[in-house]
Structure prediction request, 313 residues.
Amino acid sequence: MSRVVLVTGGSRGIGLACARRFAALGDRVAVTYNSSPPPDGLFGVRCDVTDAAQVDAAFKEIEEKFGPVEILVSNAGITKDTLLLRMTEADFAAVVDANLTAAFRVVKRATQGMLRARKGRIILMSSVVGLLGSAGQANYAASKAGLVGFARSLARELGSRSITVNVVAPGPVETDMTAALGEDRLKELTSQVPLARMATADEIAGVVEFLAGPDAGYVTGAVIPVDGGLGMGH
Amino acid sequence: MSQELFDRFIKCAVDALKVEPDQLTREARFKEDLDSDSLDFVELMMAVEDEFGIDPIDEKELEGITTFGQAFDLIITKL
Prediction:
């Protein structure tokens, strides 16, 4: 059965890996992107998720082409890493806006159709650092931790309508975002991972595929670590 | 009370609450008779706001509303 899937930030990294998995299953997949369009075969919609009007317009475009979104992967995100003393309020607010408030915008819009359909799957991309903390990432970690409380509240609000809301918390993943950290920082990071390596984006996408699939029908409000053991105990 | 307005209200409720039109009497209680929860109620109010083109209704004003007729009377004051 072909489902309508939306992946925000779906033109690269984890989002693209998710989109490819759904497309391979025969789903109708739309991805939003901000700067770089997705590769051929995916329906790309340019959308800045920090702008509610653009989010609404993107949903309208997707609904016209495919119908209401049944599976939402809220994945778009940014980093502006620096130590607290050097972090401006603008750095903090921008990251929270793009990572947490944007999830609010897309989830709120997506639930319109899901409530009507009396079913839906919402998957929010958090991070191991949301619960573990990370020096130099106070803004990013705060935004990613915020997604947990957001998801769990929605799991309660929407559960009676067969809408599940879950969080995936990846550890270090081979993407453009982590490449920007530099080799030394990456070495340091992987040295703390029990599996002693970074994840591939596809390994994260596999868990997202599971949460969107029929086997996860009774999973909601969960935070699934896909972190090579980095966050154990959190 | 205009029957035409009440009929439009019923149309919203049939859609939002997934009930049959003949269940929607003025005396029908949302919780007990219509099996509606708070989320159903919010969906109904949003549908009504769209249908009648009225501003979002303050949640405080919705306190104490238990029947379909009471909800309709409140909507009327917003037109």
